[in-house]
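wait is this the right file?? whatever heres the structure
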């Protein structure tokens, strides 16, 4: 019985080390920074590994916050995305090494309270990353 307990404990220990050594996906090293006038803040975007990474910093219903989201995106789609961000009223400020989120607590876990799934779909469609449901 003791040997079985030792074997099971050893197995759990090995599994713990395997899973604890899993590293988070690396983030892009360069981000495009845009104004975010509708929410008195900024949009940071970057494209890497067929994904667009976004960090939205602003005032959402009176709450200063940052929201992190990502979506499938090719390099070509990313160029269209950047054009559409400017067409939507933002201004490109330049490139930064990482999003500047100081003073904007990360409330990404609450994104479903800020944007409904339909609003997120409309957002992606508006910026050329998904097909519009109205087409």
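ok assuming it is, sequence goes like this
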């Amino acid at each position: 019985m003791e040997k079985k307990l030792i074997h099971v404990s050893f197995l759990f220990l090995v599994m713990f080390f395997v899973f604890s050594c899993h590293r988070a996906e690396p983030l892009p090293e360069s981000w495009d920074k845009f104004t975010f006038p509708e929410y008195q803040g900024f949009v940071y975007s970057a494209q890497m590994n067929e994904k667009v990474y976004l960090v939205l910093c602003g005032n959402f219903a009176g709450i200063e916050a940052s929201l992190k989201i990502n979506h499938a995106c090719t390099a070509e789609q990313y160029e269209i995305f950047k054009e559409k961000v400017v067409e939507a009223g933002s201004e490109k400020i330049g490139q930064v090494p990482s999003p500047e989120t100081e003073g904007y607590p990360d409330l990404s876990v609450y994104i479903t309270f800020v944007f409904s799934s339909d609003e997120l779909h409309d957002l992606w469609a508006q910026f050329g990353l998904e097909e519009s449901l109205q087409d």
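The two ends are 65 Å apart (CA to CA). so i think its the right one actually
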